[in-house]
Amino acid sequence: MTEEKVERIRRLLxxxxxxxxxxxxxxxxxxxxxxxxxxxHFFARIVSPAFAGKNPIQRHRMVYEALGDMMPxxxxxxxxxxxxPGE
Length: 87
Fold this sequence. Notes:
Helices cover 37% and strands 23% of the residues. It is α+β, with helices and mostly antiparallel strands. The longest helix is centred in the N-terminal third of the chain and has 16 residues, at 2-17. InterPro entries: BolA, BolA-like_sf.
């Protein structure tokens, strides 16, 4: 199930932001024993030209928008590293 979520995250981010680099990592093992365990903790590192000229808050909003309904239902926590090429 988690592998399916990772692949869905990758597809959504690729479709919306056309990244030149993208890593999506399941970090659920780091959250054993706290609220939301088993509901999806992920780290996304994304480098995209779409982020050029955007501040960190705007970049994070773009990622959340790309993920749409996965945020409330499929992802409990998401750490984001969002950069433009060359940063």
